[in-house]
């Protein structure tokens, strides 16, 4: 195993002549002690009794005292207190009159003080005391060494192979464990055989003694060996909580902790039998189909069931799971108990009865509510659908779990929990694992502990661990959140079950993450048609000689007399019959149904709804005024709550807008949120720095200037019966946090869930979530989501990385056919929305923002909304809307027509510029500055996709003599152009335009040339109507880094816009 390399590196540092105890003290990092030698030296180095080995001893005492003052003798406690309080050398120690008798391995300080304690000292070289101290120290050090590093030599690998052999320098060498064991744990301890029967008091940091306070050294070593170096290896000593460390020691150290009753053993065997039986059945029926079987890690199924049983007993009612391909079908069949015939129909290549393009069978999700037979309690199990992208589902599962906890009011995660399954290579390799781990303890993102299970088959596709990670274990990422890590040999089912029980109890007790690393192997190739001998010949020779765990365990239980061979066969035959019956039933099916694979059905949401009827998005003025005033006011206890002066000015300006019945961007957003909250819709806005807003415009959370953590959020206090509002600054992660919010959004359709990118550019770090979940989730998994992505976007001279949210990418992924214009109908808008995969918009007014956000909830279905959002427009004096545009009866306008002078005399208009977003304000100003308001009409697309053909059609026909241009600020290969151009072409198909015949010169200058309408056929010609491009040239980088170049590009764009 890869970890052996690390073992040997560690062991090689220990010189032969050095005593183990001294080595440990000199190498504090090796024993994970919290040594702060400098602090110790500074306050106590001048003490007369500190020299040689005594100072090492004192150092140990000091560290113990730092961790827990009660762990050292009271005299030491008094000494360290005095010393750290600045007592002069020699006076820090004052013998207290009645010190308690020392316990266990504690040595009183008096034994080290030359005269004052009246005892012989180490300093004076007394051989008796030196030996006592050294022996105690050595025993303590050994115990600690096992606790910290026993896992390095535990027997975890069912294949018994290790890497990094120092003898032959080959990679494959059996039997390293015995060597490593000695080297790492106790080779350098000086006890000889005669010492083995000496009895030692046990320190308070071990539970190997159970009720015994002292044990012979031989027994101490045996028990430590059993607890830490057998089939379970535990990493936990890095945890910064003594309570938690002791909790683990208590559950892992006492002898026989892994012992199971005969009933429990029979249950494990039965579950193992089903797990293996399922894979065997699939292999028999569909030998050449990919299924990513579990062979070699069949114990995963009993393990998951054990985690679920124990968690259910401890109060959990709903479990949300995320997992990769490996063993997924088995999990659906044997953990979730998805009807087998439904699983088998997936192999039949049938067509789907419902909409969608579907997904391969080992990516589909499911949702089951059933009775847990072991606990007799009802339980809901969901496995989230996921893409091939390994680990991408992790944050999605967490978001879904958090949402379910939130809606149930399960604030401590007692009822709802998540289980994440991982492959060894993916767990170590994928950064989103780290990003997800870092959400685990954040107030607005925690799910109060996740149980991670790694199906560690010691290989990733064809790559060995030594080439796929630099860490000793594939699980090292979990150390960052102080999660205990249990490595366990998959060939010892009872050890696996014990670890599962402890992990479930850990989660229920501390509500923190925990990892179970099931060290196993992969009996076949990566999938069933792969040949593993091409790349791992030696490993697979070994695997071929390795008995399946079912056989090993059945033999063991038969030998123990727990079951008979007949019973084993009977269980196996019965399950095979169940599979065979389901197989026959599946053969009767003619179609598959994607909705059978939904991971969280929205019961009641669609029922009784007209699928094409949208609720109004305008609201009564009274509501706008109420929200506006609250949002513009300090907290009710304003007198005590000191607000920053700058914020008082902002609030005042907001209030003035409310009085004038206008809104800016921030106020419109608040009114959209507030009015939804009033209607009982939960709103959650998450992302980096969203509480204030990257551009300091939002200020949803006000901070008391004198009191830490005293905050006020007006939107959470609008109405007494409103829905809850959550606004939360996230960790600095896009992939993890967007994934989380997607998961949150699919849990309940009656919530507006928004994720804001700091700048739109950064969404590419979350591209996998965008591609695999948001744009295609419904098509693949019938999984709707109304998530909103707020993407600051705009060419404002801020350089390549703070300009573009890559609008073009979102538009390219819009699935509407550019060559097809849907037939006109009264419900055109909603019909288009129903059929699209997502909505992409670049709104130019606060009112549009207000309506489009509210429309997310007004729709009778859910669609993701990708919204380009402004930066400078947040403060642009013209970017304001009136209450009149948001009041009752108003709606979202997909297209904002020209309303100025050009619209009054449309026949005379010579150019119509279509645009979207902030460039409108640049065009507006330029047109005004050049006095072209009668000549050029500007039409805005507030929604780009789905393409508003119907409204654009009437805008185009309104200006029959005008040339048409698409004006955009983005480069030509970016922005909307590639999306709108073919759609305009479809719209303009068969439309003709009459223009004056060319007499030389450019196309633009020939168009009517400002004169009256053409007079004779010889002067004019009829040409197809087209739209041309007005904007920046193509580019590789989204924006220039030079302000001068930016301004020049903008000038060119505007000059061209004005050419008639
Ligand atoms: C993000 C990502 N990159 C690459 C792949 C291709 N791939 C599929 S399985 C696999 C190996 C996974 O190894 P491991 O995580 O150990 O799981 P195992 O297959 O061994 O169970 C790879 C590289 C993928 N699915 N996702
Ligand atoms: Mg693997």
TrEMBL record:
It is an enzyme of class 1 (oxidoreductase). Pfam families: 2-oxogl_dehyd_N, E1_dh, OxoGdeHyase_C, Transket_pyr. Its main location: mitochondrion. GO terms for biological process: glycolytic process; tricarboxylic acid cycle. It comes from the Eukaryota. The keyword Repeat does not apply. GO terms for molecular function: metal ion binding; oxoglutarate dehydrogenase (succinyl-transferring) activity; thiamine pyrophosphate binding. Its cofactor is Mg(2+); thiamine diphosphate. One of its GO terms (cellular component) is mitochondrion. The keyword Transit peptide applies. Its EC number is 1.2.4.2. Keywords: Glycolysis, Magnesium, Metal-binding, Mitochondrion, Oxidoreductase, Thiamine pyrophosphate, Transit peptide. It is found in: Mitochondrion. InterPro entries: 2-oxogl_dehyd_N, 2oxoglutarate_DH_E1, DH_E1, KGD_C_sf, ODO-1/KGD_C, THDP-binding, Transketolase-like_Pyr-bd. Residues 663-876 form the Transketolase-like pyrimidine-binding domain. The 2-oxoglutarate dehydrogenase complex catalyzes the overall conversion of 2-oxoglutarate to succinyl-CoA and CO(2). It contains multiple copies of three enzymatic components: 2-oxoglutarate dehydrogenase (E1), dihydrolipoamide succinyltransferase (E2) and lipoamide dehydrogenase (E3). Belongs to the alpha-ketoglutarate dehydrogenase family. This is 2-oxoglutarate dehydrogenase, mitochondrial. It comes from Leptosia nina.
